[in-house]
Write a structure and sequence with these properties.
Low-confidence stretches: 27-34, 127-134
InterPro entries: Intradiol_dOase_C, Intradiol_dOase_core, Intradiol_RC_Dioxygenase
Protein name: Catechol 1,2-dioxygenase
CATH architecture: Sandwich
Radius of gyration: 17 Å
CATH class: Mainly Beta
Organism: Acrasis kona
Strand content: 25-35%
Shape: globular
Pfam family, one: Dioxygenase_C
GO molecular function, one term: oxidoreductase activity, acting on single donors with incorporation of molecular oxygen, incorporation of two atoms of oxygen
Mean pLDDT: 78
């Protein structure tokens, strides 16, 4: 019964995501505001790590950057609500894996660690860890991306950043694109990881 209930929640949430995606890709091109595919309210405050997954075989990502005003001055304590699909291309439904709220430091800098996001398919949108649908539903694909809602001083900006992870880039044309760089072990991580950087201007 619990698995069935979890599955129904997953399907309902995923239908909502598909509707948002349609509005974003079809209606958004006509000048309407972007929707927030995969967004979920109530993400926890995070110090650094967004991923709750204990699977260490998934590629690690360290993403960082700055938040500044239009004059280039850093904005401290800016809030970044961040979310993305996991390595399998699935948005968390029951928990807050690959989701979190972080703040910039006094220099306007932010940084977080997570897993490299996967290509989102229809199967991924309609699945959860307890409710997996057939691979035949993979005809819909959205390129790997990370979404942000950045807020500070009464201003808010939403940004969907597509990445060049080892998965497909399909669907990322004419979008904000950040190259992920494969990085050897260093002071940031004792294991090999991917790194990416993006600066926000409010």
């Amino acid at each position: 019964m619990v698995d069935l209930y979890s599955g129904l929640i997953s399907v309902a949430f995923s239908v909502y995501i598909l509707i948002c995606y349609f509005i974003d890709t079809v209606l958004g091109k006509k000048g309407r505001p972007l929707t927030m595919v995969g967004y979920k309210k109530g993400s926890p405050n995070r110090k650094h790590t967004l991923s709750d997954d204990q699977n260490t075989s998934q590629p690690k990502l360290v993403f960082s950057g700055k938040v500044t005003n239009k004059s280039g001055a850093p904005i401290k304590n800016a809030t970044l609500d961040v979310w993305h699909a996991n390595w399998d291309g699935v948005y968390s439904v029951l928990g807050y894996n690959c989701r979190g709220v972080i703040k910039t430091n006094e220099k306007g800098e932010y940084s977080f660690e997570t897993v490299v996001p996967g290509t989102v398919s229809l199967r991924g949108l309609l699945s959860s860890k307890r409710f997996i649908l057939p691979r035949m539903l993979n005809f819909y694909r959205q390129a790997p991306s990370i979404q942000f809602i950045v807020s500070a001083d009464g201003k808010t900006k939403q940004e969907q950043i597509f990445t060049n992870s080892v998965n497909s880039k399909s669907g990322a044309e004419d979008k904000t694109f950040v190259k992920l760089v494969k990085t050897k072990p260093d002071d940031i991580s004792s294991t090999e990881y991917y790194s990416g950087t993006y600066n926000f201007v409010l």
